[in-house]
Write a structure and sequence with these properties.
The chain is α/β, with parallel strands linked by helices. It has 13 helices and 13 strands. It has two domains: about 150 residues, D-Maltodextrin-Binding Protein, domain 2 (3-Layer(aba) Sandwich); about 150 residues, Periplasmic binding protein-like II (D-Maltodextrin-Binding Protein, domain 2). It is elongated, with a radius of gyration of 24 Å.
């Protein structure tokens, strides 16, 4: 009798499993033709996002309309519920998250870095320490042949030339990353200037965007500035090696930027990795994030769009990572990808989890 019951039960079990499998397949293979997603925010990853969104459209027929308006704008638009996702180079503060109508999740997509560029005769390969960098941007070191700079660069003939600091005049995640780093390595900087997307600079000239800053550097002998790594590489600009917390002078590169995140990460991925503990990590590196609501029904979004959004984020942080290095962005380390998977499995639509755990 037991055998008979088992034989009769097997087809029912198979049917139930088949239905469950069909449901999973249906969720994973929805027809997204005509689906459009709206996003806005950080300018730093814009070249990468343009490539990723275009590639994803060719794969899934999902159109992503992304406005590159800056990290602050991305956060505001998400809080105002005018976009499906925001993008920011500076993770949201506890206060910003507490003021949101629903919990917000941060999904890291890649890593980038600020590099130090300059305009000197023949543009020698410079090395700089954290204290030198802070004092230059504080306006305390004013000449290139200062003994402190010469001590770190004994083999370079440094000119008797006034140092002209160049910085961003517009609010940006790039400025936040740089000022976050200086605040960690210099108590004086933290006290007098602090960290932020916009600052009251103690010295220097302001340029709008990477283009404005680099333009000022190129036309100003003796100038020094911070720009994004991808911009410096793309424009053949000289960059300095920076001494990290372990005492190693590290040149900025895709590898050294990825190494900077080779540390223990919190589950929510909201972490500053400037002044990293990683021995081979470049110290002015950072994640950049896409930010979304944990419950998507707070937005004007339908189930098809909700599924498409999560599929996009999963693809960007998995298969899409192979598109990063040709564009000079650093891919996510394995630990970050595992955290991303856990976070994406928390996203709901009308109370139901979108991804099957």
């Amino acid at each position: 009798m037991k055998k008979l019951i088992l034989l009769l039960a097997i087809p029912l079990i198979l049917i139930a499993c088949s239905k469950k499998e069909d449901k999973q397949i249906q969720n994973q293979n929805l027809d997204y033709k005509g689906v459009e997603l709206l996003g806005a925010g950080a300018t730093f990853p814009y070249p990468l996002y343009s490539k990723l969104f275009d590639t994803f459209y060719n794969i899934e027929n999902v159109k992503v309309n992304y406005q590159s308006i800056g990290s602050g704008g991305g956060i505001r638009q998400l809080l105002n519920k005018t976009v499906h996702f925001g993008a920011t180079d500076a993770f949201m503060t506890d206060e910003e998250i507490s003021n949101a109508p629903k919990p917000i999740i941060h999904i890291p997509t890649c890593l980038g870095a600020d590099v130090i560029t300059y305009n000197l005769p023949n543009n020698p390969q410079l090395s700089l320490t954290p204290d030198l960098l802070a004092d230059i941007f504080l306006g305390k070191i004013t000449n290139w042949n200062d003994p402190r700079i010469k001590k770190i660069n004994p083999d370079i003939k440094l000119p008797n030339l006034h140092i002209v600091v160049v910085h961003r005049s517009d609010g940006s995640g790039t400025t936040f990353i740089f000022s976050d780093y200086l605040s960690k390595v210099s108590q004086e900087w933290e006290k007098k200037v602090g960290r932020g997307k916009s600052l009251n600079w103690p010295t220097g000239l302001g340029g709008k965007g990477n283009e404005g800053v680099s333009g000022l550097v190129k036309q100003t002998p003796g100038s020094i500035a911070y720009v994004e790594l991808i911009y410096a590489i793309g424009n053949g600009m000289p960059v300095a090696a920076i001494q990290n917390k372990s005492g190693n002078f590290i040149m900025p590169s895709i590898e050294s930027v990825s190494q900077s995140a080779n540390i223990e990460l919190p589950e929510d991925t909201r972490i500053s990795i400037t002044n990293t503990d990683a021995p081979q990590g470049y110290p002015i590196s950072s994640f950049t994030w896409l930010i979304i609501y944990e419950e998507l029904n707070i937005l004007k979004i339908n189930e098809q769009q909700a599924n498409a959004l999560i599929k996009l984020l999963w693809w960007m942080t998995h298969d899409g990572q192979k598109l990063l290095e040709p564009l000079h962005y650093a891919p996510l380390p394995d630990a970050a990808v595992k955290n991303v998977e856990k976070l994406l499995k928390k996203i709901k639509f009308n109370g139901n989890l979108i991804l099957n755990k």
